[in-house]
Amino acid sequence: MSTTSIRRSAAIPGRDELHPDCGNCFALCCTAFGFSRSADFPLDKPAGTPCPNLAADFSCGIHDRLRPRGFRGCTVFDCFGAGQAVSQGLFDGFSWRDKPDSRSAMFAVFKIMRQLHEMLWYLAEAQERAFDPETGTAAQELRLAIRKVAGGPVPGLLALDVGTLHHRVRQILVEVSEEVRAAYFAVGDELDEMLLPGADLAGLNLRTLWLCGADLRGACLIAADLRGTDLAAVDLLGADLRDARLEDADLSRALYLTQPQLNSARGSLGTRLPGGLEVPGHWQANQNRGVREL
Ligand code: SF4
Q1: What mean pLDDT is reported for the chain?
Q2: How far is the CA of 102 from the centre of ligand 1 (A)?
Q3: Which atom of ligand 1 is found nearest the CA of 59?
Q4: Ligand 1 centre from 129 Cα, in Å?
Q5: Which of 11, 108, 205, 268 has the greatest CB tally within 10 Å of its CB?
Q6: Distances (CA, A) of 251 to 42, 51, 73, 87, 226
Q7: CA distance 59 to 45
Q8: Is ligand 1 within 6 A of the CB of residue 30?
Q9: Which of 64, 74, 110 to mutate to test the pocket of ligand 1 (most atoms within 8 A of CB)?
Q10: What is the DSSP-derived secondary structure letter of residue 250?
Q11: Single pTM value for the model
């Protein structure tokens, strides 16, 4: 057996409640959202209707064969813990089957809650990694405000101006990103000119470039070759990592990485992940390696 292992940085505090707990959720992701037939979901499903594969106990009838059956999108999605927060926290454990009248509010508030939990995910990292105490405090205060509104009541959540909140979160994330990336002296001419926010880097071989500290926020990295690269302080906020090659890459200190991004990418057990992020199931095929902490 190989002793090569995944090495992780420490988990970021404040994210414990931001992981899915499907056993305490009424399959809100399988009902609230609508899907059009695509490479990620092989049928049309209107919003607010249960997926035909959903079982009576809210489990997925094809959970162990989602990818072979064409439901790749289901293996990528992550609710950041919004599902159980809505099902148990806001609706007291009564499902949309128990109380059909609650359906539209429950589904609508789930979509908002997922956005709030995703913001909390990012802000926890911003608070942890900020160098400027004022920026860290701003992240902390916004986290507290979001947590407060996320606790309900439902009408307040439904009336929330999510767009303004997104803007405030984004400002803090960008500030912290600049602080962190500056510490890697990755400014101006130090980086390849194509490593820019929103850059289209799909399918490119980036293995030979110095990437540490690059701002790849919103970049298209579909099928980009990042094997064996060091992505320390690379801002990956909203970057599209579908089918990106991450085998043996070091993402342990990347900025703003999420589980859905990892789930959509290709990697191996030699890929180094930040603490608190899981190795996607499809990375594990044919590999037999251990996990240890940094
Ligand atoms: S296929 Fe399974 S996981 Fe995907 S939406 Fe349907 S029930 Fe949910």
Answers
A1: 92
A2: 21
A3: 7
A4: 36
A5: 268
A6: 31, 34, 22, 33, 10
A7: 17
A8: yes
A9: 74
A10: B
A11: 0.92
The angle formed by the CA atoms of residues 262, 200 and 202, to the nearest 5 degrees, is 55
Q: Is 60 in the pocket of ligand 1 (CB under 6 A)?
A: yes
Q: What are the tokens at 236?
A: 């990956």
Residues 6+ apart with CB under 8 A from 109: 86, 90, 154, 157, 158
Cα distance between residue 260 and residue 82, in whole Å: 14
Q: Which residue has the tokens 């997922």?
A: 114
Residue entry with tokens 């979001």 = 146
Amino acid identity at 5: S
Percent of the chain residues topping a pLDDT of 70: 91
Q: What is the DSSP letter of 268?
A: -
Question: What tens digit of pLDDT does each residue of 255-282 get?
Answer: 999 999 999 999 999 999 999 999 999 9
187 half-sphere exposure, CB direction, 13 A CA radius:
9
Ligand 1 pocket check: which of 62, 69, 78, 263 to mutate, most ligand atoms within 8 Å of Cβ? 62
CA of 110 to the centre of ligand 1 (A): 16
- Rounded Cα distance between 198 and 236, Å, is 10
